[in-house]
Every structure is written in structure tokens, then in C-alpha cells.
């Protein structure tokens, strides 16, 4: 890796660390490249053309190199944690050993040199082979330093399909209440990743077993939902997963707002729930598929999980392929055409007419042609 070479050729120690090493050993794709080095941030800045000061207070900069982003952090140890989340400061170190000791879990505390030499001081490689998530050192210390690590532990369980080490699990249960000190936005980020893991069902059961769900927005009354055996792996997007979860809340929108989802995300989730309810009542037909596009398949996946059946995506494809049009933009007339033809004033009737024209076209009562629509409009206006 060129960035490692630049650092080491300049006389600094430098290693690939964290999730990149873990995924490399597991044969998984590496998307985030984190490096640890003896070089100070200002020294890293001098070595590369484009460096972004993303976390100078923690000794971190982001190096942009050949179109890739590399997070480069100076060897450090964290000073005392005062808010169960952030260290009061950091001290730079001269070697990788102390830097690895401050990390959360053994599987994330390994380092790899540019020559391919693995530095594993805390049994991370063994825990990978045993499929265990275990903290570096005393779990109570790690969780009291940074309470978010408890949710991260279960997120890794979900992502990798591993189990929690016994002492780690016991300490997580004892310290779960500290999660109330963590900002909702940070909890949401971890929980969204947890929901997208291959072992999500196991992870949700672990949340309940360790009583973590009591300290996450809206989940304290959802134990039966979280431990239900449904195939959540069928859900492909964050919107679908949040739709499934929030559909079990008394007030879905309030639930999503508690989690601080963006207004756009809440709107997308609402659409999925609304159209899924329509399909439950009517089944899939030209109108329900048209209205649900472009998320009709997401609605079907959501319904398949709720109804505990296999999704019938071929039916969605069949109906979509036979639709005369798949969006309002494909309609050959506009509101201005209707106003001009009828010599009428603009008003709510225009939107109502456009919607009725859409339905008539997609149900093949009329063709998507101006002459056909104009004849239909004349009849509709006289009703």
C-alpha cells in the first residue's frame, strides 16, 4: 500500500489497523483504510499533497491518495474518559503496542505492516478463528470509557455472525444503562448497521438478553418483536428495515423521530408502510404497483417479512413490464393542457383530473394519447 510506503520511507513506523486488518484476515472486502503511525499530524501533512484535518484533536487526518481516503492517526493513548463517550484528551506514543491496547475489541486491535507482518498482542486472530467478540482488557473498563462500544459489540455480532465472549456479555448486561449517556445520532448509526447484518435476528435477541433494548428509543416495549423468528435478511435497504421495525410501534412516525431519522428518511419509510398496507387489502395490481414504484419491490419484501412468506418479486416485474407507463412524467398531458382544453380557471380540480387520468391509463381504460385523454376529460367534467 503506497501510503504506508510513503510513511515508512520517510522514517516513520506505520501500520494498517482496525477493521481493515480484521476483514483482510477474514477474506472480506475492505472499504475503510485506517492507518496508525509514529508520524505526528503535522508531519503527515508535509508528506502528502491532499490532507484533510478530520480529527486533529485526536491526532487524526485523512489522506486523499489516488482517489482513496486513508484515515491516518498518530500512535496514541486516551486520557481519562469523563462522559462515557469521549476521552478528555490524547497523548502521543512512540510505538504501536500502546496504541493497540486502547482499542475496543481484540478482533479490531491487530496491526499489519507493509511487509505483511501481523502484530497481534491481544489474541485477536484466535478470537477470529473462535468467532468471538471480546474486549481488549477488562470489559467494564472499555464500556465505561465509551458506552457506545456495547452497541458496537452487538453490531459486530450481527455483521460477522460471531458470539459475545462470556465476560464481555456479562459486563455488557451490567453496564447497559450507560447507553443513556450516548447521543441518539450515534446510537442510530450503530443500530442501522446492526439491522443490516447477516445475523441480525441473533443480534436483536442479544439486545433483549443483555437488556440493551431498554436504553434504545422505543424498544423497551418491543421484546417480543425483537425476538421473533422472522427472516429479516430479506430486507435490502435501511428504509425497509426501519419500516419493519416502526410498523410494530404504536406511533411509527413518533418512533422514527425519537431515533432522529431525517425527514426524508421518515417520508420514505412512511411510503413503504402505507403502500404495503394497501397491498395487504387489495393485492398487487396495476394501480398498487404503479403507486408503489420505484419501491414496489421494497414493499413486497417488507410484506413478505410481516406475513412470513417468500417475496414474489416476479409478480412485481410482470405487472411493471405490462404497465402503459411507470411514472406521471410519462403522461402525455399536463395540467396546462387540461386548463386550455376546458377554458377553465386553475384549481384543485386539475390535480384531481390528472390523478384520474393516471388511473384510467394504467388500468388501460384509455390510451396515453392526447385525443383519447381529451375525450375522457370531456365525459369526466360532465359527471
From TrEMBL:
Check the record and name the Pfam families matching this protein.
PolyA_pol (PF01743), PolyA_pol_RNAbd (PF12627), tRNA_NucTran2_2 (PF13735)
Q: Per the database entry, which stretches of residues form a coiled coil?
A: none
Q: Which family does it belong to?
A: Belongs to the tRNA nucleotidyltransferase/poly(A) polymerase family.
Q: Which coenzyme or cofactor does it need?
A: Mg(2+)
Q: Which residues form the tRNA nucleotidyltransferase/poly(A) polymerase RNA and SrmB- binding domain?
A: 161-220
InterPro entries given in the database record: Bact_CCA-adding_enz_type3_sf (IPR050264), CCA-adding_enz_C (IPR032810), NT_sf (IPR043519), PolA_pol_head_dom (IPR002646), PolyA_RNA-bd (IPR032828)
State what protein this is by name: CCA tRNA nucleotidyltransferase
Q: Report the CDD domains cross-referenced here.
A: NT_ClassII-CCAase (cd05398)
Biological process, per Gene Ontology: tRNA processing
Q: Which residues cross the membrane?
A: none
Report the source organism: Guptibacillus hwajinpoensis
Amino acid at each position: 500500500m503506497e501510503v504506508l510506503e510513503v510513511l515508512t520511507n520517510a522514517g516513520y513506523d506505520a501500520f494498517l489497523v482496525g477493521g481493515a486488518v480484521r476483514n483482510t484476515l477474514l477474506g472480506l472486502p475492505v472499504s475503510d483504510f485506517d492507518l496508525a503511525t509514529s508520524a505526528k499530524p503535522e508531519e503527515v501533512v508535509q508528506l502528502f499533497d491532499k490532507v484533510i484535518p478530520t480529527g486533529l484533536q485526536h491526532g487524526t487526518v485523512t489522506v486523499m491518495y489516488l482517489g482513496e481516503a486513508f484515515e491516518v492517526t498518530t500512535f496514541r493513548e486516551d486520557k481519562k474518559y469523563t462522559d462515557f463517550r469521549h476521552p478528555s484528551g490524547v497523548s502521543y506514543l512512540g510505538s504501536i503496542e500502546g496504541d493497540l491496547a486502547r482499542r475496543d475489541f481484540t478482533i479490531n486491535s491487530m496491526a499489519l505492516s507493509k511487509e505483511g507482518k501481523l502484530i497481534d498482542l491481544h489474541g485477536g486472530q484466535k478470537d477470529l478463528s473462535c468467532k468471538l467478540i471480546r474486549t481488549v482488557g477488562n470489559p467494564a473498563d472499555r464500556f465505561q470509557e465509551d458506552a457506545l462500544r456495547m452497541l458496537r459489540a452487538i453490531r459486530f455480532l450481527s455483521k460477522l455472525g460471531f458470539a459475545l465472549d462470556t465476560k464481555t456479555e456479562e459486563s455488557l448486561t451490567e453496564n447497559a444503562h450507560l447507553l443513556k449517556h450516548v447521543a441518539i445520532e450515534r446510537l442510530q448509526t450503530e443500530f442501522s448497521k446492526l439491522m443490516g447484518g447477516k445475523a441480525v435476528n441473533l443480534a436483536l435477541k442479544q439486545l433483549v438478553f443483555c437488556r440493551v433494548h431498554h436504553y434504545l428509543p422505543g424498544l423497551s416495549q418491543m421484546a417480543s418483536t425483537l425476538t421473533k423468528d422472522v427472516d429479516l435478511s430479506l430486507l435490502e435497504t435501511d428504509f425497509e428495515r426501519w419500516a419493519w421495525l416502526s410498523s410494530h410501534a404504536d406511533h411509527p412516525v413518533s418512533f422514527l423521530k425519537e431515533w432522529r431519522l431525517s425527514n426524508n428518511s421518515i417520508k420514505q419509510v412512511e411510503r413503504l408502510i402505507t403502500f404495503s398496507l394497501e397491498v395487504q387489502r387489495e393485492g398487487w395490481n396495476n394501480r398498487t404497483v404503479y403507486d408503489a414504484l420505484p419501491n414496489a419491490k421494497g414493499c413486497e419484501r417488507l410484506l413478505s417479512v410481516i406475513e412470513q412468506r417468500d417475496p414474489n418479486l416476479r409478480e412485481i416485474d410482470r405487472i411493471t413490464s405490462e404497465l402503459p407507463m411507470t411514472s406521471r412524467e410519462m403522461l402525455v398531458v399536463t395540467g396546462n393542457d387540461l386548463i386550455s382544453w376546458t377554458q377553465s380557471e386553475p384549481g384543485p380540480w386539475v390535480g384531481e383530473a390528472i390523478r384520474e387520468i393516471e388511473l384510467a391509463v394504467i388500468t388501460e381504460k384509455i390510451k396515453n394519447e392526447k385525443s383519447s385523454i381529451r375525450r375522457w376529460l370531456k365525459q369526466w367534467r360532465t359527471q
